[in-house]
Amino acid sequence: MEFSHVIEKRRSIRNFKNNEISKEIVEDILNCGRLAPSAKNRQPWYFVIVKGKTKNRIADLMIDYTINNDDTIERKRIGYASSVNLTANVIKQAPILILIGTITVQ
Questions:
Q1: Among 21, 40, 85, 103, which is least packed, fewest CB within 10 Å?
Q2: What is the dihedral of CA 83, 88, 92, 94, to 10 degrees?
Q3: Which domain holds residue 61?
Q4: What are the C-alpha distances in Å from 36 to residues 15, 48, 71, 72, 103?
Q5: 6 vs 79: CA distance, rounded Å
Q6: Number of domains in the chain
Q7: Is 0.90 surpassed by the pTM of this model?
Q8: CA nearest neighbour of 93 among 66, 55, 49
């Protein structure tokens, strides 16, 4: 398959089934992410899998943050809060949340 075809046909999924995802599938997804290009192949990232109440609490914190901090005119103009709230609701629907962090070497 041509790379341009892959890019043209990609899509975002924002509605999820309430099905459990097998550990093998999650590990495969993470391995693909791990293999993404990085400077000198350092792969300076780590992944955290979040499910259930903890995942939903993260989404709730996102919503709470926008309610309590959406005070700038620019943020209101661009609909920052509604965008974050939509993302938080998508997170709540998803069976898992994958958080990605990076390791900084000083």
A1: 40
A2: 70
A3: 3-102
A4: 26, 17, 37, 36, 15
A5: 31
A6: 1
A7: no
A8: 55
The pLDDT value recorded for residue 100 is: 93
Decide: 56 and 92 in contact? Cβ < 8 Å.
yes
User: What is the pLDDT, as a whole number, of residue 76?
Assistant: 63
Token pair recorded at residue 39: 């400077």
- What CATH number corresponds to the domain at position 8? 3.40.109.10
Beta-bridge mates of residue 80: none
Task: For 23, list phi and psi in degrees, rounded to 5.
Answer: -60, -40
Say if CB 81 and CB 75 are below 8 A apart.
yes
Q: What share of the chain is helix, strand, coil (3-state, %, to 5)?
A: 55, 10, 30
- 61-81 pLDDT per residue, tens: 998 888 777 566 666 666 666
